[in-house]
Design a protein that fits this description.
Uridine Diphospho-n-acetylenolpyruvylglucosamine Reductase, domain 3, alpha+beta
């Protein structure tokens, strides 16, 4: 329950239609794609930077928790208001403020939807590289909060590599800018990269200057199937060792292919493992690039290598990857999707560990994802209450295996609530202490997204 005087101050900051305390309306802003839920005491809809400054200062003055929210597509509970308080939904602060094609930057408000931004940039033959699966729905600030990636990250990097500057408000209500609209800079600590991936626990972003890339004129898509996971992983290492960097390099294990085949039909092959590989660039360079990729893909264990010749064939080669998520949802509405990362050379060990865990706990587990940077989505698929109960121990063992393999807990989903308890396994004690000190400096009263990440 909000203190009466705090509510009164919020009513002075926000118009009647930009603030609600109605329980049913607040409920809509209390959950995300993790299936966790908590109801905030109020929801506000900022449209200006100045409103955000006033909002943070009001919440701090009254000790009210404040959670910034995009569209709630994250999978870790990071935007769930577990301590109540106020949710600030940025859905109305959604303008593309400026696109500068000469400097290849875009300046945007936090609530701009990734897919809408890409559509706006296409006319100028530009794009913003982060492309998570939720791109048609997720916001730029949400991508910033969890350092979102997607298939293109193997070539173009994740969000942290594609944001140049931020305007933000810290937990004391002080506004600041960090970074510059230049691709080089060495002036003090890099606060921009610090804020990216901080899940709204340090500051609330109100403006972002994004680094854009030229839209490639053409793409070439290949699909390689292998007798086993080890052969596919060795092919990934060969592909990433040669000079032509793919713009996508996706991996599916044999169990993924069985599920996708059952859902998508005979056009999806059955094999020990599969890679979907895509390169981009100018048309006159793609033939040589495609041949370089094909040479690297060939090797022991290769069953078949196909190169798409037209759009229909591209769609056919991607069919397995696109059929996978619906297939997994059909098998397990309660699937647990972890986005762990290991060195590329250790992907076979990760898959083997996942299979051993699956056998030990009699629990379906499948692996797929962004093989080019070792970022695999390990999906636990409990089909009933008993399997769901066994998932906790299986997840615990999975994270232990990832750490043993020199990996880490998350590549692009973040920590939120789901992985918070595992942070001491991935980060040493002094590093965690430094993180807590940084949190205290930015947000001394702990009002910003409390209970998340640390």
């Amino acid at each position: 329950m909000l203190p009466t005087n705090a509510l009164g101050e919020l009513q002075r900051i926000f118009a009647t239609d930009a603030l609600t305390t109605d329980a049913a309306e607040c409920l809509v802003y209390g959950y995300d794609n993790s299936r966790r839920q908590a109801t905030p005491d109020a929801v506000v809809f900022p449209t200006t930077h100045e409103q955000v400054v006033a909002l943070v200062r009001t919440c701090r003055a009254h000790g009210v928790p404040l959670v910034a929210r995009g569209r709630g597509t994250n999978t870790t509970g990071a935007s769930v208001p577990v301590s109540g308080g106020v949710v600030a939904s940025f859905e109305r602060m959604n303008r593309v403020l400026r696109v500068d094609a000469d400097d290849r930057i875009a300046v945007v408000e936090p609530g701009v939807i990734n897919g809408d931004l890409q559509a706006a940039l296409e006319a100028q033959r530009l794009f913003w590289p982060p492309d998570p699966t939720s791109a048609p729905f997720c916001t730029v600030a949400g991508n910033i909060a969890c350092n979102a990636g997607g298939p293109r990250a193997v070539k173009y990097g994740a969000t942290r590599d594609n944001v140049l500057a931020l305007r933000a408000v810290d937990g004391t209500g002080e506004e600041f800018r960090c970074g510059t609209p230049t691709t080089k800079g060495s002036t003090g600590y890099d606060l921009t990269r610090l804020l990216i991936g901080s899940e709204g626990t340090l500051a609330i972003v109100t403006e972002a200057t994004l680094k854009l890339a030229p839209l490639p004129s053409a793409k070439r898509t290949l699909r390689a199937t292998y007798a086993d996971v080890g052969s596919a992983a060795k092919a990934v290492a060969r592909i990433m060792a040669q000079p032509v960097t793919p713009c996508a390099l996706e991996f599916l294990d044999d169990q993924c292919l069985v599920l996708a085949h059952a859902h998508g039909g005979d056009s999806i092959p059955l094999a020990g493992a599969m890679l979907v590989i895509e390169i981009d660039g100018e048309p006159d360079t793609l033939a040589a690039g495609g041949e370089a990729i094909a040479r690297a893909a060939r090797g022991d264990g290769l069953l078949e290598l196909l190169v798409a010749g037209n759009r229909a064939e591209v769609d056919a080669l991607w069919a397995a990857r696109k059929a996978l998520s619906p297939a997994l949802r059909t098998l397990s509405p309660n699937k647990i999707n972890e986005d762990v990362v290991v060195p590329v050379s250790r992907v076979p060990e990760l898959v083997a560990a996942a299979r051993a865990i699956a056998a030990k706990h009699t629990l379906p587990i499948v692996c797929f994802g962004h093989a080019g940077n070792g970022n695999l989505h390990v999906n636990l698929l409990p089909r009933d209450a008993a399997e769901q109960a066994r998932s906790a121990a299986a997840l615990d063992e999975l994270f232990d295996a990832v750490i043993r393999l020199d990996g880490t807990l998350s590549g692009e989903h973040g920590i939120g609530l789901a992985k918070r308890a595992f942070m001491p396994r991935a980060v040493d004690a002094h590093a965690l202490a430094l993180m807590r000190a940084i949190k205290a400096q930015f947000d001394p009263d702990g009002i910003l997204n409390p209970g998340k990440l640390l």
